[in-house]
Design a protein that fits this description.
This protein is of the alpha+beta class and 177 residues long. It has one domain: B-lactam Antibiotic, Isopenicillin N Synthase, Chain (Jelly Rolls, Sandwich), CATH 2.60.120.330. It has 3 helices and 11 strands. The strands form 2 sheets. The chain has a 7-stranded antiparallel β-sheet with strand order 1-9-6-11-4-2-3, covered by helices on one side. The protein has a 4-stranded antiparallel β-sheet with strand order 5-10-7-8, with no helix packed on it. A hairpin with a 2-residue loop joins β7 and β8. α1 runs antiparallel to α3. The chain is globular, with a radius of gyration of 15 Å. It starts with 6 loop residues before the first strand and ends with a strand.
């Protein structure tokens, strides 16, 4: 969604259960679903635990993926709380995942192009991060703190450079359509 500001801070959240579930995932789980990496060049240097995914619009067909079994309980609770606190009820989550940008990795400058992004709120909750992660939106560097929920203006050009250890965000898309 195109926002007035590049990043909207929603506030602190209890991310500990999702962080623990992600930490318990084995290395192979991060490689089991490479849909994003193969479909979107900008995500080649990422790995994902994909819970929910839809690439159809305007009538999204949402698929449960392998990450559902790993993250559903804690992630659903986190998403429900963020939605209840910040968004109107009655919508649905059309994508949800933990996304890792490996140490030394980069997501090149791009804007999300799927038509659903004009209607969906893109929420990021950093689970593991460091000041060495540079998340640039509209040419401005943003430090997204661990345990804080943010809505990101993903229809703006954005890029990420990770000069620190692996960075992991829980990301989901919520739409009222």
């Amino acid at each position: 969604m195109l926002l007035e500001t590049p990043v909207r801070r929603l506030g602190n959240v209890d991310h500990s259960a999702v962080k623990a579930a992600v930490a318990a995932a084995d290395a192979q789980a991060w490689l089991d679903d490479e849909t994003r990496q193969k479909s979107f060049e900008q995500h080649r240097q990422t790995q994902s635990l994909v819970m929910l995914f839809s690439n159809t619009w305007p009538d999204p067909v949402v698929e449960q993926r392998k990450g559902w079994d790993l993250l559903a309980r804690p992630a659903t609770a986190l998403m429900d709380q963020i939605i209840a606190d910040h968004y109107p009820p009655g919508g649905r989550v059309i994508r949800a995942m933990a996304a890792k940008l490996v140490s030394g990795g980069r997501i090149p400058l791009h804007k999300d192009g799927h038509p659903s992004f004009a209607a969906a709120h893109r929420i990021h909750v950093p689970l593991v991060t460091s000041p060495d992660v540079d998340f640039v939106i509209r040419g401005v560097s943003n430090y997204l703190e661990e345990g804080v929920a943010y809505e990101v203006s993903n229809l703006d050009y954005h890029a990420v450079t990770n000069r620190g250890p692996d960075r992991i965000h829980f990301i989901f898309d919520y739409t009222l359509q």
